[in-house]
Amino acid sequence: METTNLSTEKKTNYLNADYSIKSWLLTTDHKRIGLLYLASITVFFLLGGIFAMLIRLELLTPAGDLVLADTYNKLFTMHGVVMIFLFLIPSVPAVLGNFLVPLMIGAKDLAMPKLNLASWYIFIVGAGFILYAILTGGLDTGWTFYTPYATTYSNTNVVSAALGVFITGFSSIFTGLNIIVTVHKMRAPGLTWRRLPLFIWAHYAASVIMVLGTPVLAITIVLVALERLFHFGIFDARLGGDPLLFQHLFWFYSHPAVYIMVLPGMGIISEIIACFARKRPFGYDFVAMSSIAIAVLGFLVWAHHMYVAGISTYAAMIFSLLTFFVAIPSAVKVFNWTATLYKGSITFASPLLYVFAYIGLFMVGGLTGVFLAAVGIDLHVTDTYFVVAHFHYVMVGASVTAFLAGMHFWWPKITGKMYPEFAAKISGLLVFCGFNLTFFPQFLLGYLGMPRRYHAYPPEFQVLNVLSTAGASILAIGFLLPMLYFAWSLRYGKDAGPNPFNAAGLEWQTASPPPTYNFEETPVVTWEAYNYDEIDSPQKGVEVAG
Amino acid sequence: MAGHVDALYFALVAIAAFFTFLVSAVILFFAIRYRKERNPHATQIHGSTALELFWTGVPLAIVMVIFVWSAVIFFMQTRPPKGAMEVYLVGKQWMWKFQHTEGPREINELHVPVGRDVRMIMTSQDVIHSFYVPAFRIKADVLPGRYTSTWFRATQPGRYHLFCAEYCGTQHSGMIGEIIVMDAVAYDKWANSGVDGSLASAGEKSFQQYGCSMCHRTDAAGRGPNLVGVFGHPVLLDDGRTVQADESYIRESILNPGSKIASGFKNIMPTFQGQLSEEEVIGLVAYIKALGNGTVNAPIPVSEPNNGVYPVAPKAEGSDAKSDTTANPPAAAPAPAKPAERR
Asked: Do B20 and A363 touch (CB under 8 A)?
């Protein structure tokens, strides 16, 4: 492979191969589908962000004065539904995973390219139902759809929104299935399992969750629709059903779903630390296996959402114990990332700054998870702002920061262009500071007893709410800035060349942007993963790139 | 209780802060010490099993200690002490309705005496709510179709926030109230002023009104089990299982009588689902509970024509047999309700 001169000549790549709209809408190229997903989730992120800003503005004052109570309830519901089902779940796996998994394993495409395209269309159809629900009066059940409120009492568009969530679920099942099959069957010659990038391990683990967990959500949603439309007595006590059954079924998916949103981001972190410390990740096997451990244990902890919901004391104890176990593999990852820096040769590029922000925020999110695992404390802080702060630290502080870190790391690969480094560092700083200012006060609010989903609140909680709203404005700028300079870089950015960060990994050994079938010829892997010693040693450096 | 929860909470804050600052400091130190300018060549280290086991084992040990500690607190939070006074709660969109056993009813305010254990027996007549008093560090969901319970003991007189913590619709954030903690004397005065009768006596009226006393007689001739002394004891069922006669069992037996049939009886009782309000059910539960401890009168045996369609119910083995020893003499009229004196 003549990667050395790829940067200089103008070559055909996946972006300039065909400019027609049809070539995008009917593409089976995983890279183009990844970009279709990127465009879609960016729109949904902005939409969910607008809802979030309205929520924060309402909470600026104790009285419910900006919007009506019903409107507020719809805002937090739609914020949750859009952000979780239309942004976070597809964000890393369907954008970066889609784009990078075949490149990282030296394949031409995912194993099932047409299924991949179908999954995007299914996602769009599902999103259409959710948008329809939003535009025709909204949804006010909370993203959790708790029964019997959702099945009997809510006067909003539960069925169309639920149908939307049901449909998008299939898109995530198909993406997961595609990644699993691809990792099993499409690896380049010589690329053994233990030579796989940790990004692949993390995506593999998350894909297993998608395939096993999502059907349970689908079934649950069908039952909700049946009860709402035809009054089947499944969840409503008056019809002979059991409202707790819904919570068991819902969290059986929705707790593992947290790991769908977190694990792929962890893969990103491992790649970036290795590159900018110029080292093989410390404890590769343990980091890889901790992803699998998280995926397995993640299925055994769902009832920790239900300690106060009316389950038995002993059930709560067992789920508490299992929840403490799931803290361990996460801790192992953090320690190994830290140890990777030891005796590295570290460059403070913007992706690494995002990674540092990630580790800080993920630690706070993870450790407050330990608070919530402790039944005795959970009883007090569950369903308060403590929980809101905790899951935003994990879902936004960790997952979104990891996504941004990944976007900064692979943007040159995706587009062939460099973004302005200084602006990227500023935005990283804004995200970190704005995020902490937004959500740290919410831990205090929760401990002081402010329940979540409150349209109006007692005046003693105002100061902390004002801080949180102020932080949200900074955070919003931190999130908007990358969209601006990424867009700017498409036209004005410097050419990146195939490997601007001199990173290991097969994706860097082809052109940026890559050609339609990724590699001029199928690579044969004769080296271990993260061979930074070989890349950085002067006599071998050029040779390894080929 | 608040003290126990806070102690664990601040211990966890200390542990979390320690690890966050430790890891952050180490990362910053490495990032500066091993920056490219100072350390142009990385030293490759593949890992260390000893180190992995160390940082798997230490957190595991710490969280196991936390688990045991929090589990102990949780037992205290969920097991009400014996002899607690009882307050019934019906949640509805969007208010809290309390019923004291002495008789008073309240909406969105709950008066309790300081220093007494108070056990809440709670249900909802629509969606799920959650009874949350931050000052007492307790929270328990209030579900439709069943009873849940929690308890607290207020240590300081005063007024405390009561929040609904489970999203329940439009006025969720308006479903707030106050727990008013009074000293014992003031509470007694409050509880006994202007009250028509105890909760159990209200239940007794329903018991007559809905014809329960026709079958649930105190002599051996009833078609239904004699209910005197049933509460708080195990009941043998016709499928051989035994259940504890607690509030939930009584409730279920009223609303869905066929689900658990006491041994020796037939499934002949009609369901009262949809015919009784949650408040009436609570009254009946309180009455049947009071029948057990001798604080109210047993139902008047109604001379009812036993036309032979139903077999004369045999005395069930097991707990039902106990009833004859505790029954009050079937007195004439129910005594005007004295507030049930509780231990």
From this structure: yes
CB B63 to CB A277 under 8 A?
no
Give residue-wise pLDDT tens across range A411-447: 999 999 999 999 999 999 999 999 999 999 999 999 9
Q: What's domain A35-535's superfamily in CATH?
A: Cytochrome c oxidase-like, subunit I domain (1.20.210.10)
**Cβ pair B12:A377 closer than 8 A:** yes
What are the structural domain ranges in chain A?
Answer: 35-535
Residue B279 has pLDDT above 50, yes or no: yes
CA B123 to chain centre: 9
Interchain proximity A379–B77, CB inside 8 Å = yes
Taking CA atoms, what residue in B is nearest to A308? Answer: B140
Interatomic CA distance for residues A446 and A208, integer angstroms = 34
Letter for the amino acid at A532?
A: Y
CA distance A433 to chain B (A): 15
Q: CA quadruple B214, B217, B222, B224: dihedral positive or negative?
A: positive
Find all residues with CB under 8 Å of A390, minimum gap 6, and list them: A365, A368, A369, A371, A372, A443
Q: CA of B177: which chain A residue's CA is closest?
A: A458
Q: Which residue has the tokens 């507020």?
A: A72
Size of interface A-B (CB pairs under 8 A): 266
The share of chain A scoring above pLDDT 70, in percent, equals 97
Q: What is the residue-averaged pLDDT of chain A?
A: 93
Lowest mean pLDDT among A15-19, A37-41, A189-193, A540-544: A540-544
Which sign does the torsion angle of CA A355, A358, A364, A369 carry? Answer: negative
Chain B residues with beta carbon closer than 8 angstroms to that of A345: 34-36, 39-42
- The answer to whether residue B115 neighbours chain A at the CB level (below 8 Å) is no
User: Which tens digit of pLDDT belongs to each residue from A110-128?
Assistant: 999 999 999 999 999 999 9
- Restricting to B residues 119-148, those with a Cβ less than 8 Å away from any Cβ of A are 126-128, 130, 132, 134-135, 137-141, 143-146, 148
Q: Is the peptide bond before B270 cis (omega within 30 degrees of 0)?
A: no
Stated as kind and residue range, the H or E segment containing B107 is strand B105-107
Per-residue pLDDT tens for A60-98?
Answer: 999 999 999 999 999 999 999 999 999 999 999 999 999
User: CB-CB: which of A331, A345, A371 is closest to B55?
Assistant: A331
Peptide bond into A513 cis (omega under 30): yes
Lowest model confidence (mean pLDDT) among A194-208, A377-391, B302-316: B302-316
C-alpha span between B127 and B144 (Å, rounded): 6
The pLDDT of residue B307 is 41
List chain A residues with CB under 8 Å of B21. none
CA torsion, points A452, A457, A458, A464, in degrees to nearest 10?
70
Residues 155-174 of B with CB under 8 A from A: 161, 163-174
Return the pLDDT at B102: 84
Q: What is the pLDDT of residues A269-298, one digit of tens each?
A: 999 999 999 999 999 999 999 999 999 999
Which pLDDT score, from 0 to 100, does residue B299 have?
Answer: 54
- Whole-complex ipTM: 0.90
CB under 8 Å to A180, separation ≥6 — which residues? A204, A207, A208, A211
- Interatomic CA distance for residues A491 and A493, integer angstroms: 6
Any idea how long chain B is? 343
Rounded to an integer, what distance in angstroms lies between the CA atom of residue B93 and that of residue A269? 46
The pTM assigned to this predicted structure is 0.89
B195 pLDDT higher than 70:
no
For residues B273 and B267, give the distance between their C-alpha atoms in angstroms, rounded to a whole number: 16
* Of A156, A153, A89, A75, residue with least CA distance to A127: A89
**pLDDT at residue B336, as a whole number:** 39
d(CA A335, CA B111) in angstroms, rounded, equals 52
Q: Please name the amino acid found at residue A432.
A: F
Q: What residues of chain A lie within 8 A of the CB of B177, using their CB?
A: none
